[in-house]
Amino acid sequence: MTTVTRRRNVRMLAVASATLLLSTLIWFNYSAVLPAVVDAWGLTGVRAGLLFGAFQAGYLVGVVPLGMVADRHSSRVVVAVGAAVAATASVAFGALADGFLAGGLLRFVAGVGMAGVYVPGMRFVSEWFDAAIRGRAMGVYVGTFSLGSGLSFVLTSVVATEFGWRAGLLVTSALALLAAPTMYLFGRDATRTTNRRRGFDLSVLRNGSFLAGVGVYGAHNWELYGVRNWLPAFLVSTVAIGSTATPAATAGLLAGAVTAAGGVGNLSGGWLSDRVGRRRVIGLGLALSGAGAVVLGVRSWRSAAVLAAVVVGYGVVLTMDSAPTSTAITVVVDDDRLGTALSLQALLGTLPGVVSPVLFGVVLDAGGYGLAMPTLGVGALLGLGGVYYLGKDGG
């Protein structure tokens, strides 16, 4: 690879990552102000979980069709349009939503838009990087998701503390409006060497390694989305954070740090997977994070310093398996089916992420966080079975 080619590829990775960073500011801004929204709208634990799940439901509805469009047309354009829809709906949520129904509808639309950003963006990155170094590139891209999510918690919490929860949502949503022009104006389409397939092609579902990767991804998302939706509320419930002067703000900042630490997990997981093997890194990440969720729930936390250290470390291992899993998907399927395969991975693998926050709310209402947190860890540990079946092609 020449120096010019390397610089061009790195530049495209930077554009894709910046676009994702800006768009991801809306993914968890609702979670950052969840306690305030619950109080303002009188939500139960189940309804609060469903409101988060509405975004995920919209994402699932849009992800396969938009992934297929990215296989046939410019992934750059798909990402730009999706980013514009997601940010506009999120602005409307912060400005206009006045209850569960309106909020759920706008979060659903934002989720559909986000389906046009994340997975087509992975297709975009895969087009620019060969399989031998794709793990590192994917680690940077997916790591940006964690960084953006962490910034969303921090920015939303800081602004909401001073100006109210609606202001927190509006600031992060306004920044997300910059994502679409970033991708459209500064991104470039890679030269395709594969055919643009027509029709609804589900042949990847006959690929055993692909299905194993989807199972692993589902276990990852079961834990990830449950944690990211409920972490601020869990932190506020602890003695360590609940006894501080500003529990909600402290919990939001700590949740942001935990989520941003996931960027380190993605980067290290992607880098390690190119060297020691993807399956080893995926298995290690799932084992450590699953155990961590159980420990968080069953222990009492009275020291803010100890709790902060534990949850930040947990944030790192929580995402170690993400980039290697997505990279494995890109190497076990044909190049001309990447968009479809990645979108099916997202659809099937994200379904557990819709269910887990709701189940968490049900268990929380019944028995508190001591029972609710372990439900996330058990889900992650079950994913270890899929690592074995990922196959040699998956690394």
List the SSEs and their pairings.
Layout: H1 3-24, H2 29-32, H3 34-41, H4 45-72, H5 75-96, H6 100-115, H7 118-128, H8 131-163, H9 165-176, H10 179-186, H11 208-237, H12 239-242, H13 247-276, H14 278-298, H15 304-318, H16 322-332, H17 338-367, H18 369-382, H19 384-388
Which percent range describes the beta-strand content?
A: under 5%
Distance between the termini: 23 Å
The CATH architecture term is Up-down Bundle
Unreliable sequence segments: none
Please outline the major beta sheet: none
**Helix and strand element order:** HHHHHHHHHHHHHHHHHHH
Coarse structural class: mainly alpha
What is the overall silhouette? globular
Helix content, binned percent: over 70%
Which topology does CATH recognise?
A: Growth Hormone, Chain: A
Structural write-up:
The protein contains 19 helices and no strands. It has 395 residues and is mainly alpha-helical. It has a single domain (9-184, 205-394), classed as Growth Hormone, Chain: A, CATH 1.20.1250. Helix 1 (3-24) packs parallel to helix 8 (131-163), helix 1 packs antiparallel against helix 10 (179-186) and helix 11 packs antiparallel against helix 13 (247-276). The two termini are 23 Å apart.
Give the tags.
395 residues, 19 helices, 82% helix, single chain, mainly alpha, globular, Growth Hormone, Chain: A
Overview in brief:
By secondary structure, this protein is mostly helical.
